[in-house]
Amino acid sequence: MLDVIEIPKGERGVIRVFDLDMRPEQARFLREPGALAQVLGVEDIDLDHVEIFPVSDLEDLGLAGYLTQGCGIPEDEVTADRNRLNAIQGHVLLLRSRAFGGLAERLTPASQITPIASYGESAIKWQAAAMAQNESSKPYSAPQLSPRQARHAARRIGASLFAVVMCVIVLVLYLVVF
Q: What integer pLDDT is reported at residue 1 of this predicted model?
């Protein structure tokens, strides 16, 4: 319990990488409800935002490549740790900030769980050009039909649908009889 990792309240966009020094069946067991929370020393954790997998599954991509290409972490953040990331054998744990639901937490990982690094995901820019304001973009700016014209249009649509349905019924009856 030497390493205590503080997760601040409301943290977003951070991925923490841990090396799991355990047998494969132990690593698979961490996917069970409550198991990972127990070894990290927290009450609850959302497993939808946790990845546990053997590094060998990444084949030629490697862990550094997975973090940049699969998780959206900028290349320059991973460059300093590339050798350490590629040296990991066995299973790895990727823990996203959303796993804690925005709550402040203190992680006290078990001795088999070694923190490697923390990375910030690239922020999405949600800005767009301002929408042009003209007459046609205002609500209720289309020409309004008079009540008489609206009724007439509704009757035409209704009569057309009725005619189509009746034609289909006659066609089906014709095919059934002959």
A: 42
